[in-house]
Design a protein that fits this description.
Elements: H1 8-22, E1 24-26, H2 27-34, H3 38-50, E2 55-57, E3 60-62, H4 65-71, E4 86-91, H5 98-109, E5 114-119, H6 124-135, E6 145-148, H7 155-166, E7 171-174, E8 179-180, E9 185-186, E10 188-192, H8 194-207, E11 212-218, H9 224-238, E12 241-248, H10 256-270, E13 274-278, H11 280-292, E14 302-306, E15 319-322, H12 325-339, E16 372-375, E17 378-380
Helix pairs in contact: 2-3, 5-12, 8-9, 10-11
Pfam family, one: HTH_DeoR
Keywords: DNA-binding, Transcription, Transcription regulation
Protein name: Substrate-binding domain-containing protein
């Protein structure tokens, strides 16, 4: 004897109960629990979203935030994430530069959204795999929005940008800028003005009395172009002689020792008295090798590091340009939650009765203009850039 299929009203009641129980549910999960096809589930969800009972998320549905609070959907012992949006965050590194960005995002998301972190690399395919794992139909958590720091150079990166722009959910780039579509429209982003930071370093060296200066940047960093642009522009403005402009491998590369030696050789040959080095690890290594050669820092060679992760721990402590890493993460979360229509501290402002973002507030929701936020770094002055003594 076959079991009689539930009436549509009974099926939808069970669907709502399942979503209330779990906070949110994916189409595949609901199809399995209810014993119906995914097509039937999607049809039921469309009706329940239309009347405001549920709120659509990528790949499934959840109880709207205001309903969850009013009915006490978060049981004792729950994580408190029920009814809140889920944000996926994909960063290229978990051990340098990005931990502070992550902390800023985590602090900003607290109480407003659930944050799921995935570490990738500077490889296009790896970034795509991690994003797919977050938004994919099979087994992913069904995030409502993404924070991503993808590669930006080359055809593969351009294709990745098009793919990100085509996802059916909001995306905010961190420390990156990309354009997509036939009209090359920018994706939403938060980034440091690295050209301003390196230009500030050049101005500081000039103020300290240096006229022959050098620049050492990374071949692998996506920030190198902006760092070079800012430093060289200010050097030309101030009449500084840039006797060294080299891109090197990172400290972790086996070729670093030879390239570092070449940097110091060229400093000596060109008469450079000051360097801006991107990043901290390479700057500290250059200082150590300079000291082994008998060069005094800063009397013979002043050094500014770019990033200020560990520059203060060098001997002597290094003057450094510090990007606003925590503010990058926090601002990215703010952009994304506003795009989702969550503008209030309680995670509710800006949603209409159907759980749609924005309402009549032009500052939030799907109709919000694309924002490209640029934050300023600042210079931390330490012992490695003491004023130059004339004739010293």
């Amino acid at each position: 004897m076959t079991e009689e299929a539930p009436l549509p009203s009974e099926r939808r009641a069970r669907l709502i109960a399942r979503v209330r129980e779990t906070g949110s549910a994916r189409v595949s999960d609901l199809s399995r629990v209810l014993g119906v096809t995914p097509v039937t589930v999607r049809r039921d969800l469309a009706l329940l979203v239309a009347d405001g009972t549920l709120e659509k998320v990528h790949g499934g549905a959840r109880i709207p935030a205001r309903t969850a609070r009013a009915t006490g959907a978060a049981e004792a012992g729950d994580t408190g994430d029920a009814g809140r949006p889920t944000i996926g965050m994909v960063v290229p590194s978990l051990d340098y530069y990005w931990p502070e960005v992550i902390r800023g995002a985590r602090d900003a998301a607290q109480g407003a959204a659930r944050l799921i972190l995935r570490g990738a690399s500077y490889d296009v395919d790896q970034v795509r795999r991690q994003v797919t794992a977050l938004v994919g139909e099979d087994g992913g958590p069904g995030v409502d929005g993404l924070l991503v720091a993808p590669p930006v150079e080359g055809p593969a990166a351009t294709e990745l940008g098009e793919w990100l722009a085509g996802l059916n959910l909001p995306v905010v780039l961190m420390e990156r800028r990309l354009a997509a579509g036939p009209y090359r429209e920018p994706l939403e982003s938060v980034a440091t003005d690295h050209a301003l930071g390196s230009g500030t370093a050049a101005r500081h060296l000039a103020e300290r009395g240096h006229r022959q200066v050098g620049l050492v940047t990374s071949r692998t960093s996506p920030h190198t172009a902006a760092v070079r642009r800012g430093f060289l522009a200010v050097a030309e403005e101030l009449g500084l002689d840039v006797v060294l402009d080299l891109q090197t491998v990172p400290l972790s590369d086996t070729g670093w020792a030879d390239e570092a030696a070449s940097v110091l050789d060229r400093c000596t040959a060109g008469g450079a008295t000051a360097l801006l080095v991107h990043s901290d690890r390479e700057a500290i290594s250059l200082v150590e090798q300079a000291q082994e050669r008998g060069l005094r820092v800063p009397a013979d060679l002043a050094v500014i590091a770019y990033d200020d992760e560990v520059a203060a721990l060098a001997d002597p402590p290094l003057t450094a340009v510090r990007p606003p890493r925590a503010a990058i993460g926090a601002s990215a979360v703010e952009l994304l939650t506003r795009r989702l229509g969550i503008t209030g501290a309680d995670g509710d402002g800006g949603r209409d009765g159907n759980g749609n973002g924005g309402g009549s507030d032009p500052a939030s929701g799907a109709d919000r203009p694309v924002h490209r936020v640029e934050l300023s770094p600042h210079l931390i002055v330490r012992a490695s850039t003491a004023p130059r003594v004339p004739g010293g």
